[in-house]
Design brief:
By secondary structure, this protein is α/β, with parallel strands linked by helices. It is built from 15 helices and 22 strands. A seven-stranded mixed sheet has the order 15-17-18-14-13-19-20, with helices on both faces. The chain has a six-stranded mixed sheet with strand order 10-9-8-11-12-21, sandwiched between helices. It has a three-stranded mixed sheet with strand order 2-6-5, covered by helices on one side. Strand 8, helix 6 and strand 9 form a beta-alpha-beta unit. The N and C termini lie far apart (about 70 Å). Bound molecules: 1,4-dihydronicotinamide adenine dinucleotide (NAI) and magnesium ion. 1,4-dihydronicotinamide adenine dinucleotide binds next to helix 8, helix 9 and helix 12. The site of 1,4-dihydronicotinamide adenine dinucleotide has 26 residues, from helix 8, helix 9 and helix 12.
Length: about 525
C-alpha cells in the first residue's frame, strides 16, 4: 500500500503482465482537481417521513444513517418507516385519491406534473450534487444524465394526462387507485421519476419507497412536491430498508406494486402479491450481451462498450456486461479496450473529470469482489489498468476478463459493477445463441455496419431493448422493460401508462361491454 494515502488497485495477474502491445497507455498529462461545489445543497441532520403532504416523525421511532460512499462520512439520519407508518402513508394516498386526485380533470393533473418537471430543471444542480454525494455516482452523470432524464420524464407524462381518452383505441382508461413503488439505489431520482410521473398522469396516487443507501434526492423531491402545491397525500415517501418495502407490498390498501431491484426480491414480491388482486410490474436484473461484428466501426464500438459497462460504475440493470466479439476482431478490440481503460479517471465523484465514482455501498463492493475472485478462480484472465484509488470509501477499478467461458459465474451472474466479461463468436447464429443463453432478457447491443443484420439480430434476441451502434440511450417516449427473469411490464412511452390504468373495452358506440 502506498504511503501517500492511496492504494494501488491493480489486481493479481493484472495489467502489466500482458504482452508489450498490451501495456497500458496512461494519460500523458495530469488533471487539476475540478470539484463541483457542495454549497448548493443543504443536508438536514434528520429526515422524517413524507406523509399527507407533511414531514412527520416515524411512529417506529427508528432512523438509519445514510452515508457518502466516497468518504464513508455520515450525511443524515433518515426515518425507517415501520408497518404502522406504511399503513398511514397508504391511508393518506387512498384519501387523496378518493377526495381529490381521481376526479381532477387530466388537464389539471398535467399542470402539477409540468410544475414538478420545471422545478427539477430549475434546481437541477442542487439535485445532481445531492445525488452524487449520497450515492457516489460521478457528477457529470448525475448532472448530464439523471437530472435531464428525470425532468424529461415528468414533462413527457404531463403531456399524456389529458389525452388518456384517446391513447387506447377501443378501451376506456380509468385510474387504478394507490400505487406502491419500490426503487433501487443506482438511479435514485430517475427511478422515482419513472415511477411517479406515469402514476400521476394516470390519476393514481402513490407511496414511494426509496432505497436505504440513497434516500436524499427523493426527500428533496418531497420539498418540490410541497412547492408545487401538489394536493396532500397524492405522493407519500416512506424511507427505510427491505422491511419497509415488504410492508408496502403487504398493505391491503395498495392496488398496484411497481418494483425495480434485484431478481431475488422481485420473485419474493411476486409470491406475496399472487392472488391478492394487486397489479404488479417488475424491472429486475440483467446480463446483457453487447455484440460486436467484424464490420463494426471499431473506435465507436469501443466507446460504446466502455459506456455500456463502466457508466455509473456498472450499477446498471441494462449494462452491457457480456461483450461478444467476432473472433477476427478479438485482439484489436481487447487492445483498444485496455488502452481506453487506462484513461478512465476513478475517484472523487464530485470532480467534473471523474469517469468512475464510488461503489454505492460496502455490501455491493463485497459482492463485486466476490464475483471477480470467482472469475480468477474459474480460470479467466483479469485485467485492470494501473489506477490509484482513494484510501477511504468504496472503490473498484475498471476491470475486464478475457478467457471467459459461458459456464463461468462472471458470464452468468449480474455483477452490477465495473466488470466486463469478454467472449467470442464466429457466426451471427452463434452470437444469437450465446446472447440468449441467460435467464435474463433486459437489453442487448449490436455493432455492425449492416442494417439488415441489425434487424436480423433484433428479431432473434430475447431482450426488451436492443441498441444498434449505440448503448445506454434513454428517452421517456421509448418503452423499457424485460423478458424472463428481468421482469415484466414496461416503463416509458404510452406503454408505461398501462400498468397504472384500468383499461376497459368499449363498444363501437362508446357504451361499455362485459
Ligand atoms: P434489492 O432488490 O434488495 O433492493 C432494491 C429495493 O428493494 C430497495 O429499495 C430495497 O430496500 C427494497 N427491498 C429489499 N428487500 C425487499 C423486500 N423483501 N420487499 C420489498 N422491497 C424490498 O437490491 P440490493 O440488495 O440493493 O442489490 C442486490 C443486487 O440486486 C445488486 O447487486 C444487483 O445485482 C441487483 N439490483 C438490480 C437493480 C436493477 O436496477 N435492476 C437495482 C438494484 C439492485
Ligand atoms: Mg447514501
Amino acid at each position: 500500500m502506498a504511503g501517500d494515502g492511496e492504494r494501488n488497485a491493480k489486481g493479481e495477474g493484472g495489467a502489466l503482465q500482458g504482452r508489450p502491445s498490451q501495456v497500458v497507455r496512461r494519460t500523458p498529462w495530469e488533471y487539476t482537481p475540478a470539484p463541483e461545489s457542495r454549497d448548493v445543497v443543504r443536508i438536514k441532520d434528520r429526515y422524517d417521513l413524507f406523509i399527507g403532504g407533511r414531514f412527520v416523525p416515524p411512529l417506529s421511532e427508528r432512523w438509519r444513517t445514510t452515508i457518502d460512499p466516497s468518504t464513508e462520512e455520515s450525511l443524515a439520519e433518515v426515518a425507517e418507516a415501520g408497518e404502522e407508518d406504511v399503513a398511514r402513508a397508504v391511508e393518506a394516498a387512498r384519501e387523496a385519491w378518493d377526495t381529490s386526485w381521481r376526479d381532477l380533470p387530466g388537464k389539471e393533473r398535467a399542470k402539477y406534473v409540468y410544475r414538478i418537471a420545471r422545478e427539477l430543471q430549475e434546481r437541477s444542480r442542487e439535485f445532481a450534487v445531492l445525488e452524487t454525494i449520497d450515492g457516489g455516482k460521478p457528477i457529470k452523470e448525475s448532472r448530464d444524465v439523471d437530472l435531464p432524464l428525470a425532468a424529461a420524464h415528468f414533462f413527457y407524462y404531463a403531456g399524456w394526462a389529458d389525452k388518456l381518452d384517446y391513447a387506447f383505441v377501443g378501451r376506456r382508461a380509468r385510474p387504478l387507485g394507490v400505487a406502491g413503488q419500490i426503487i433501487p439505489w443506482n438511479f435514485p431520482l430517475l427511478m422515482a421519476a419513472w415511477k411517479l410521473a406515469p402514476a400521476l398522469a394516470a390519476g393514481d396516487t402513490a407511496v414511494l419507497k426509496p432505497a436505504e443507501t440513497t434516500p436524499l434526492t427523493a426527500l428533496l423531491l418531497a420539498e418540490v412536491l410541497q412547492d408545487v402545491e401538489l394536493p396532500p397525500g397524492v405522493v407519500n415517501i416512506v424511507t427505510g430498508g427491505g422491511e419497509t418495502g415488504a410492508a408496502l407490498v403487504h398493505q391491503p390498501g395498495v392496488d398496484k406494486i411497481a418494483f425495480t431491484g434485484s431478481t431475488e426480491v422481485g420473485k419474493a414480491i411476486q409470491r406475496t402479491v399472487a392472488s391478492s388482486g394487486k397489479r404488479l410490474t417488475l424491472e429486475l436484473g440483467g446480463k446483457a450481451a453487447n455484440i460486436v461484428f467484424d464490420d463494426a466501426p471499431l473506435d465507436q464500438a469501443v466507446e460504446g462498450i466502455v459506456n455500456g459497462i463502466y457508466f455509473n460504475q456498472g450499477h446498471v440493470c441494462c449494462a452491457g456486461s457480456r461483450l461478444l466479439v467476432q473472433e477476427s476482431l478479438f485482439e484489436p478490440v481487447v487492445e483498444k479496450l485496455k488502452a481506453r481503460l487506462g484513461t478512465l479517471r476513478v475517484g472523487d465523484p464530485l470532480d467534473k473529470n471523474t469517469d468512475i465514482g464510488a461503489i454505492n455501498s460496502k455490501q455491493q463492493l463485497e459482492k463485486i469482489e466476490e464475483l471477480v475472485a470467482s472469475g480468477t478462480e474459474e480460470g479467466a484472465e483479469i485485467y485492470q489498468p494501473e489506477c490509484h484509488l482513494p484510501e477511504r470509501g468504496f472503490w473498484f477499478a475498471p476491470t475486464l476478463f478475457t478467457g471467459v467461458s459461458q459456464s463461468h459465474r462472471i458470464a452468468k451472474e449480474e455483477i452490477f459493477g465495473p466488470v466486463l466479461s469478454i467472449l467470442t463468436f464466429r457466426t451471427p447464429e452463434e452470437a444469437v445463441e450465446k446472447a440468449n443463453n441467460t435467464p435474463y432478457g433486459l437489453s442487448a447491443g449490436v455493432w455492425t455496419e449492416k442494417g439488415s443484420r441489425i434487424l436480423w439480430m433484433a428479431q432473434r434476441m430475447r431482450a426488451g431493448v436492443v441498441w444498434a451502434n449505440t448503448y445506454n440511450r434513454f428517452d421517456p417516449s421509448s418503452p423499457f422493460g424485460g423478458y424472463k427473469e428481468s421482469g415484466f411490464g414496461r416503463e416509458g412511452g404510452v406503454h408505461g401508462l398501462e400498468p397504472y390504468l384500468e383499461l376497459e373495452p368499449v363498444t363501437g358506440n362508446g357504451g361499455r361491454r362485459g
